[in-house]
TrEMBL record:
InterPro entries: Aldose_1/G6P_1-epimerase (IPR008183), Gal_mutarotase_sf_dom (IPR011013), GH-type_carb-bd (IPR014718). It comes from the Bacteria. Keywords: Plasmid. One of its GO terms (biological process) is carbohydrate metabolic process. One of its GO terms (molecular function) is isomerase activity. It comes from Pseudoalteromonas carrageenovora IAM 12662. This is Galactose mutarotase.
Length: 327
């Protein structure tokens, strides 16, 4: 069973991709936000949706009004800042970038006996960049292939930060599993304050020894909020790693996660928000962000200073692939 269905969701035109294992719903008008990923075998919705926030077109480019959960894309930066890397031109990159706040164009839909393909495209900074995301869902597969193509339409090499921004619905005691025991994360203010950690980095293998363990979803009353980025995943002796990061519900014996190559996706971000932070003053959500990314910071400028930004060469297209899976 393979279906690609044009439908309505929350009052917007949407596209549903469906096989026997997965159902994925995308709203092109809302920054190509993925509003739902359901594991059909278990009838489980994996993405969070904050009912306090109504889905609507971007107004004043205020991400807090759009931050309802689901899966957005952040590019060419995450924190708001001037983009001054094109001679004689200055653009402003908004909070969480330039992709979530515009309607994307459907550039390809294809369905055969074996697979469904959906491509959507957005232009950034007056077509300085062309950003294309392609979903491929094969028959009976528990894996969604996500291919990214970013074209630089200028005559200058241009830097960027990119992050997938999926926000997952979680419950206490669910587990975060990462297959790379050597992965280290930069300690931010939230993590430092909560655990009284004074070091600049923490090894993921140490996280299970913390009280409470960082690799398990905390209690509802923990009030923990922290955003951490890994060190570069493709340096030293650990090049071309196959990275697998999973969100595991041991009680239900279910999981979902991402798989990617460190040769093309250089970092991993984790956003822990266990009723700990709200941008609007409303009740803080209880969610987890698992965010494969290129760049070691929300700030493009900070990533450039540490030489860990992405680069799209003039006139060329940069490609990377991410795989989402359920079990």
């Amino acid at each position: 069973m393979l279906n690609l269905i044009h439908c309505k969701a929350h009052g917007f035109e949407a596209i549903l991709l469906k096989n026997s294992e997965l159902a994925i719903t995308v709203i092109p008008q809302l920054g190509a936000k993925v509003i739902s990923i359901v594991s059909l075998k278990h009838n489980r919705e994996w993405l969070a949706h904050d009912k306090q926030i109504t889905l609507k077109p971007a107004k004043n480019n205020d991400f807090s009004e759009h931050d309802s959960g689901g899966w957005d894309e952040c590019f060419p930066g995450i924190s708001p800042q001037l983009y001054e890397h094109i001679p004689n031109k200055t653009h402003f990159s908004h909070d969480h970038g330039e992709l979530w706040c515009q309607a994307w164009q459907i550039t390809n839909t294809h369905i055969s006996d074996e697979e469904i393909i959906l491509s959507l495209q957005a232009e950034v900074f007056d077509s300085t960049f062309t950003f294309i995301r392609t979903f491929t869902l094969k028959k009976h597969s528990k894996r969604l292939l996500v291919d990214y193509h970013v074209k630089n339409n200028t005559t200058h090499n241009l830097p960027f930060v990119w992050s997938a921004h999926p926000i997952f619905a979680v419950e206490p005691e669910m587990r975060i599993s990462i297959n790379s025991k050597h992965m280290e994360f930069k300690v931010d203010e939230g993590l430092s304050r909560f655990y009284n950690v004074n070091s600049a980095f923490i090894n993921w293998s140490e996280c299970s020894t913390k009280v409470p363990p960082l690799n398990k979803v905390m209690s509802y009353n923990s009030g923990f909020a922290s955003k951490v980025f890994s060190k570069h995943l493709n340096t030293g002796t650990y090049k071309d790693q196959n990275i697998i990061v999973k969100l595991v519900d041991d009680k239900a014996q279910q999981s979902c996660g991402f798989e990617f190559s460190s040769a093309s996706i250089s970092h991993l971000g984790l956003w822990f928000n266990y009723n700990g932070w709200s941008a609007t003053g409303a009740s803080a959500p209880f969610v987890l962000g698992i965010e494969p990314c290129i760049g070691n910071s929300d700030s493009l400028q900070h990533s450039i200073q540490s030489s860990e930004q992405g680069i799209v060469v003039k006139g060329q297209t940069k490609f990377w692939r991410l795989v989402f899976f359920v079990n």
